[in-house]
Amino acid sequence: MLAAVALLLTGAAPAQTASDPALAGAAPAPVSAAFYYGPNPPLADLQAFDVAVVEPEYVSNPASRTRAAADGAHQLFAYVSLGEVQPSRPYYKQLPPGVLKGSNAAWGSRVIDQAAPGWRDFFLDQIVAPLWAQGWRGFFLDTLDSYQLFAKTDAERAAQTQAMVATLREFKRRYPDARLILNRGFELLPEIAPLTYAVAAESLYRGYDAGRRSYGAVSDNDRAWLQGQMQTVRQRYQLPVIAIDYVDPAQRGARALARETAQKIVADGFIPWVADGALMSIGVSSVELVPRNVLVLLDLAPGEDLHTSEAQRFLGIQLNHLGLRYEFRDVGREGLPTEPLAGRYAGVVTWFRSGAIHQQLGPWLDKRIKEGVPVAIFNAFGFQMTKLTADMLGLTSFAAPTPDQLNVVQADPVLMGFETKPRVDRGQLENVRLADPAAPSLLRMKDNRNNLYDAAAVTPWGGFALAPFATTTAPVLDPPRWVLQPMLFLKQALRLPDIPVPDVTTEGGRRIQTSHLDGDGFPSKAEYPGSPFAVEILQREIWDRYRFPVTVSVVEGELSPQGVYPQLSAQTTALARKMFMLPYIEPASHSFSHPFSWADAMNDTHHADITQMDGDASHTLEVPNYKFNLQREIKGSMDYINQTLLPPGKKAEVFLWTGNCVPPPAAIAQTYLDGYLNMNGGDTMITRSRNTWTDIAAQGIRKQGWYQVFAPNQDENVYTGNWTGPFYGFERAIESYELTGEPVRFKAVDIYYHFYAGTKPASVAALHKIHRWAQAQPFTRLYVSQYIRKVIDFENTSIARTSDGALVYRTGANLRTLRIPEGAPDYDLSVPGVAGIAPGPEGRYLITSAAQVRLAPRAAESRPLPMLLEAGGQVSEFRRSVTGDKAELRFTLSANGASTFSISGARACSASADGVALTRGKTPSISSQAWFKDFSGKSAVHQYDIGSTNAQLATTRHLVLVQCTL
Asked: 0.85 exceeded by the pTM?
């Protein structure tokens, strides 16, 4: 029997899917499968498998996770026990009388009499029907042979099987599109094989005894019998067969044993899943997940938000750039996870305050290290250093008085002294050193008694960097700066492979540029002749002149007659309607009353310091007769915009956070539950005078499963002293754009400002300077909604490795870039879904054209092919045909306004878009960038420009044909 636990799921951000496949008709056979019954299932990781069976109570909106075969087939299946019931199930007490007949002591469950009056209807009406209503279309039916615990005669067994057959026939009659996977039930197949999607069976090579909680090899006789049954299913009934085997995750070499077992199952012709006995870990199937999730352990001070924690501020963007997503665990409040982490997490990262002691942390980390999960420790160990804990980390702990003198005697020239030199602090000294004197230390100190101290090292289990040698802690240094090179340290400590990673900074090989306005100050008058409204200046001076895609929000409380400026409402509403008619403006909401602190507003407190904002800031707008209401702020303001301000064909779907942009989890969740995208916050403030990676924010933050997308850059307030001057200061945003683009491309460019930026000639001049700079760059220009969807796809991307070493990426409908880091092999670029490759300031960028891409190293004799070098939009449906020295490329290019693309790998080309011949391009190209000269794939570049059309949102899908001579 497969284990099941009934708890409630904390909601999680749904993936953006490429399409909703029709489930009717012949279903494609799965080639991989996963079973995960724990709470908070890792849905993004499970997406790597064609079939994933989960406890339905832990998942909301399962249909949103379904992917078509062309996008990498994936479907969630609900675990449903037909033959047994756990007393913890919510429907247990409503079971019809006489249904329970016997018990399964090993699992603590009751066995069901399939022939009992009322059971069939109860099962279909009370168990299956609610799941169907929730969107479940796949069902894994477990415990089909449990009746054998009480049915001892042939007649009794026949009665049970016939009753079960009747139930399954009725199941498919009511729900003909349902896909059913049976756990065993071999004796049912002669009658219900045509109704069945696949068959599973447990313990082919290795089994699990739930009663004894023990693992072991299956006997030869038992395996031979089961193999015979499974081969019959595969050969006679032509059904996929899944073998579920079990390996103790606590034993040494568990992962290698799981791989070995899975390989045996594949060799037998079956689909493997090898995991722990409770099925609460990521196991091994015909493909194995390449983990890209990191568990970050920390301790938050009372009242502290994850948003402002050092782990989030300093490590977030480093992990993102390495292609990783991460989740936080506040150890003091939430404790430590108990389930196995190997296979699910790329590593554990800790960032604890100096002096923090968590008693269970040391033994817990020891288990993770034995599992083979790398651990990277920042700032402080977080547990009492004893001989036992020191030994497990390969350290020596010693007693010594506070030294009179302390000096650095060894510092790694690559990893230490990154932004500032290491400075010793006798008050922050951990009395440890590497146990092996020959082991390399990243930073070693010696005191006046000749004691050696190691404060940073990369070790066989991961690595550590203790304060103050990760970031500076001296208050005179504002902002803090990295002593350690964080990206290289994380890469080495977590033993990250050199493989392509998803990237949200780049589209079509060109850096992404967006622009958005927070709605504050819409009624503001500009300091121009005639005192026009700021929106009129922005339209005349900026939007109409540059015609960049721009996402513009309004604050309902500033515009509506019930708001704070009722006397201006008629004028401002008319201006807003005119503004939203512009084809290159995407509408968005900036709330109803503009809360400065969402936590204060939701809890009716006043903890936030509003003096940190501009002089007009308040906790919320003083809207008459209004008391804060979360639904009114989000859905209410979106409804107002959609129903009152927008022309036909436009719809607002972006909600931009207000004030300090630190919403609590419930507020973030509300945007998802209402069906909207959300963005803002992050505080990327790096400039030439604050040139530190600690001032580069992550792509976003996950709170209790709900993801807040951060704005790529900060607004004009940051550069103008919170709008006190100098008002031309916003031009320094160019410094931020440049420093987050080279030598490491951390961020997209976001020209982010408020309406009041249009009130002063100096700030308008700064906007002109920024736009002219952006106009000269080889950017792909996107709306904020398009960028947000890429970030969500990043969070949901899965990577799996096949048995032959190929990598399978499932990214989603919107993310179309994989960045190849230095050190990675050259890949075969002729595979489906790869449209081209582009150089960048570091690494190379694969231009992909599908939601699933399979990459394998390139054969040495591979012939160069014509492909895209760059494209100013999203590429899809890419096809290439080569005959002799002639090649033809066909693809679609979805672009916002005018666009461009370049072809490399051919001597000569001609191109057309939508049937119109194209002339050579003059738009800024990546081929003009300084780093392009180092691109090893450089060849003749053929660039073509595509003119824009006046579509409603200036977004056009072009059909492109390129014909080349090789």
From this structure: yes
Nearest alpha carbon to residue 587 among 527, 637, 533: 637
Q: Which residues pair with 298 in a beta bridge?
A: 330, 351
Distances from the Cα of 705 to the Cα of 305, 328, 607, 798, angstroms: 15, 10, 25, 17
Tokens 């809360």 correspond to 595
> Which neighbouring-strand residues pair with 913?
916, 960
Nearest to residue 657, comparing CAs of 712, 730, 708, 619?
708
Q: Give the Å distances, CA to CA, from 388 to 296, 335, 356, 363, 465.
A: 24, 22, 19, 9, 20
> Model confidence over 571-625: pLDDT tens digits?
999 999 999 999 999 999 999 999 999 999 998 887 776 655 543 445 678 899 9
Specify the residue for token string 């073998």.
Answer: 243
Distance CA 82, CA 99 (A): 12
C-alpha distances (whole Å) from 272 to each of 23, 278, 515 are: 24, 16, 47
Could you tell me what percentage of the chain is helix, strand and coil, using 3-state DSSP and rounding each to the nearest 5?
A: 30, 25, 45
Cis peptide before 663 (omega within 30 of 0): no
> C-alpha 583: how far from its chain's center?
31
pLDDT digits (tens, 9 = 90+) for 235-275: 999 999 999 999 999 999 999 999 999 999 999 999 999 99
Query: In this structure, is the dihedral angle defined by the CA atoms of residues 698, 497, 931 and 919, taken in order, positive or negative?
Result: negative
- Is 201:1 a contact under the CB 8 Å cutoff? no
Check: CB of residue 9 under 8 Å from CB of residue 161: no
Say if CB 138 and CB 198 are below 8 A apart: no
Task: Find, among 365, 436, 359, the residue nearest to 396 by Cα.
Answer: 436
Please give the pLDDT value at position 821.
94
Q: What confidence tens digit (pLDDT) does each residue in 126-136 have?
A: 999 999 999 99
Q: Output phi, psi for 403, to 5 deg.
A: -70, 155
Report CA Rg, the chain: 30
pLDDT at 609: 67
| Largest pairwise CA distance in the chain | 98
- Tell me the mean pLDDT in the region 864-875: 94
Rounded to whole angstroms, how far apart are CA atoms 857 and 827? 4
